[in-house]
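Fig. S4 source data, part A: sequence.
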Amino acid sequence: AFDETVWFNPKLFDGKFDDKERSIKIYNDWIEYVKKTVPSDKLLIFNVKQGWDPLCDFLGMDKPKDCIDFPRSNSTKEKNASPILKKAIWVNRIVKNVVRAACIATFAYCCKRYAGY
């Protein structure tokens, strides 16, 4: 689905997403258009590196109590440290391999069974 929305969509970036300089220009032009057309009291120009304060102030909300660290890095080291995530990845790989094997076995069975038809 992502390929269809970015790389092969003729409307997005005029279908020339691979042209990096042109794509950056279209992106920056869009940002400027948004800045000019959206009222300043309805628009937040925000970088996640700024943390919770600008976002919460803009939304008129308190900072979340259960997620103090923002932004988080989501590094590979952090992901690998989570035993739950390790188990989920392991189970995911097993399920994928079982499904692949079942598909191959079903295909082989059908080929053998219906080869004469």
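Fig. S4 source data, part B ends here. The chain has a mean pLDDT of 80.
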